[in-house]
# Entry
Amino acid sequence: MVKRRIAEILRSGQPDESLLIQGWVRTKRELKGFAFIEVNDGSSLASLQVVMNQDLPDYEAIIKKLNTGASVEVAGVLVPSQGKGQRIELKAEMVKVYGEADPETYPLQKKRHSYEFLRTIGHLRSRTNSFGAVFRVRNACATAIHQFFQERGFLWVHTPIITANDCEGAGELFNVTGLNLKDIPRADNNAVDYAQDFFGKPTYLTVSGQLEAEVMAMAFSNVYTFGPTFRAENSNTSRHLAEFWMVEPEMAFCDLDGDMDLAEAFLKHVFKYVLETCPEDMEFFNQRIDDTVLSTADNIINNEFQRLTYTEAISLLEKADVKFEYPVSWGLDLQSEHERYLAEQLFKKPVIVSDYPAKIKAFYMRLSDDEKTVRAMDILAPKIGEIIGGSQREERLDVLEKRILAQGMKPEDLWWYLDLRRYGTVPHAGFGLGFERLVQFMTGMGNIRDVIPFPRTPQSADF
Ligand code: 4AD
Ligand code: MG
# Structure
């Protein structure tokens, strides 16, 4: 008998087809002489209704085992459904229970659970409607991202997870060591003797693949990374993770305007793809999570993003008739309340802020002629704040060396990065998209911990 996925059966299954499904019981309804079982295999939000007639062999014994959470295989024939809510249902001819789930202890009973509670059962929460929808949409976002870049001839490059550099220079690094922490080798001045460590020097989990992506762009012109990044920033917010996925395109022969154009086209593409491929899940988010999800998606796809400079943003914030917690003044970084005011209240769509003060931005960003600002851009999304951060890179060797020194870093540590400016340097630009923030933006999920299967945050690394 052919095994079929439930999404496909619901979409195109026809009466009289014989088939087999495997999945987990969501609900059971016993009536006189028969029972309805809802079976879900993760392929769609909707479950398939299975009808079991009491004349099935071992009916009583099997029905007892079919509690919420039990794993089953059902063979049978599709019949038009008499009931409301589904076009078709499966009339069971054989039901096999793989594993039972004790209703006294299985935590996912048929009622709504809070996301806080579901986080405590991260190993089971993917079996709920909400998390099923989130992780299918997350998968669709990832597919759309690859599709967007591959169609444009970008090479997907794999940058290291273990690195000796701090790309963002923010010091939010997790150390990677092979040293025995109970017996740390010391050098003469009592400092840790990293010469004895696995790599012979201090190493960290990467905060960004950008520097290595620049290396690859200087050979392949257009590249992108898509991988995990790590930040030891002690931010307990609904927008920060210690381990998150980042997408980082890098383009040779490209300036900041080209970078902003790509970023805007990129976000539009991903939203369009997800609306087309996950309509049922997106409808679910709109009904159950945030009733602006579909209108936001429509807004992204059909409107141009608002572009303005940091200097213009500051003057708009100074004129704003709202009380901000953090001060607004030229030279200070924008806080998330400022970002959200611009995107959510003022422009009501994504905003691209460019040309930030050099002092608050990373060493690699290209210094403008005013020598006060760098060619940086952030894309700010309603409800999320910063979703993309990018820049044109400093391609002039002498300027870059000065910027590295000014930020208290050593040029010799970045000798290979500086070589890119010594040999065949070109204007180039790129950006980083926080993948989980994108999934939040797409789904309306309020907490970033609920859009990644296994969130890592301060004091929490379960599952
Ligand atoms: O703005 P960031 O720090 O930029 C970079 O890392 C650059 N090297 C990117 C580049 O130009 N190639 O980070 C990029 C994005 C942010 O806009 C945000 O969406 C996300 O990464 N991000 C986080 N997401 C979740 N948790 C965190 N702790 C994040 N920190 C940054
Ligand atoms: Mg940033």
Notes: Residues 378, 386, 389 surround magnesium ion (ligand 2) (CB under 6 Å). The mean pLDDT is 96. The two ends are 36 Å apart (CA to CA). The first helix runs from residue 6 to 12.
